[in-house]
């Protein structure tokens, strides 16, 4: 053991030179400042979670300006649809009732509107792929086209739906002024021919963890990250298999889950999101 003592540092010398009361006040104020910072962070975190919960529960239409090249990021509402002075009301001939927020925000339902056409309107929930398969084997037997109006939902189900539609040689489309967001474009990609009506909003964003609870808390972080990576790879593989340019996925992964990257008409064509029917022998 050494008897040598190190000289106090500058901060220690300054603190020792203060009266006892002043030193205690400094320590107390530091603790108060730290507590205030932590409290502010907690408040911001809770406020962010509350705002996100409000966004995901919102069912009222949200007025939004039409996206233009260079200005294509819009809020994503999983249970509502965008409206605006330059947007009309989408129509699917033969579909009973308006294609409004109420219809779009509910679980997807399938209606045969014409002998060869099926309307698919609503959210893609877990199990929707099974619903589609049963419908195609029942009331939808013999149909050849699917018209979409959906804010998206379960990516796993959307991928399964796309592969089922391709297997059965369906064409897919989004009506004029329609809405196909989040996982919905994956279903659209399943069509052998794909169309988007004038003014249709077709948008993509990041995959988010299906294991999030209503409060926003995540399950085990490593498991959530692994699930997202696996799902993202499955989405890219689907686009490749369906003939869609996988660079579309770069736009998706650059866009936070709370927002939507709305594709322009030129991008719909260049990414091959819309496509003419294949010619014989192709």
From TrEMBL:
Gene3D superfamilies the record matches: 2-enoyl-CoA Hydratase, Chain A, domain 1
TM ranges: 22-40
Keywords tagged on the record: Membrane, Transmembrane, Transmembrane helix
Keyword Transmembrane helix applies: yes
Biased composition (Basic and acidic residues): 51-60
Keyword Transmembrane helix: yes
Organism: Aureimonas pseudogalii
SUPFAM superfamilies per UniProt: ClpP/crotonase (SSF52096)
Pfam family, one: CLP_protease
Protein name (database record): ATP-dependent Clp protease proteolytic subunit
UniProt region (Disordered), positions on chain: 50-69
Annotated InterPro entries: ClpP/crotonase-like_dom_sf (IPR029045), ClpP/TepA (IPR023562)
């Amino acid at each position: 053991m050494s008897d040598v003592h190190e000289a106090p540092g500058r901060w220690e010398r300054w603190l020792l030179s203060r009266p006892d009361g002043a030193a205690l006040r400094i320590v107390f104020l530091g603790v108060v400042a730290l507590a205030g910072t932590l409290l502010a962070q907690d408040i911001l975190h809770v406020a962010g979670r509350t705002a996100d919960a409000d966004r995901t529960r919102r069912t009222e239409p949200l007025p939004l300006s039409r996206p233009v090249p260079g200005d294509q990021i819009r809020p994503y509402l999983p249970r509502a649809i965008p409206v605006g002075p330059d947007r009309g009301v989408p129509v699917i001939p033969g579909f009973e009732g308006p294609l409004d927020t109420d219809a779009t925000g509910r679980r997807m339902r399938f209606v045969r509107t014409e002998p060869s056409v099926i309307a698919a309107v609503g959210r893609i929930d877990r199990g929707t792929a099974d619903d589609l398969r049963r419908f195609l084997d029942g009331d939808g037997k013999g149909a050849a086209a699917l018209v979409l109006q959906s804010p998206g939902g379960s990516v796993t189900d959307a991928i399964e739906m796309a592969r089922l539609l391709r297997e059965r040689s369906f064409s897919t489309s989004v009506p004029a002024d329609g809405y196909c967001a989040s996982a919905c474009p994956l279903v659209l990609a399943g069509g052998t021919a794909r169309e988007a009506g004038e003014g249709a909003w077709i948008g993509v964003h990041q995959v988010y963890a299906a294991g999030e609870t209503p409060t926003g808390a995540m399950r085990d972080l490593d498991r959530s990250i692994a699930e997202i990576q696996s799902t993202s790879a499955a989405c890219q593989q689907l686009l490749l298999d369906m003939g869609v340019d996988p660079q579309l996925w770069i736009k998706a992964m650059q866009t936070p889950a709370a927002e939507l990257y709305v594709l322009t008409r030129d991008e719909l064509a260049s990414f091959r999101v819309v496509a003419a029917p294949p010619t014989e022998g192709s």
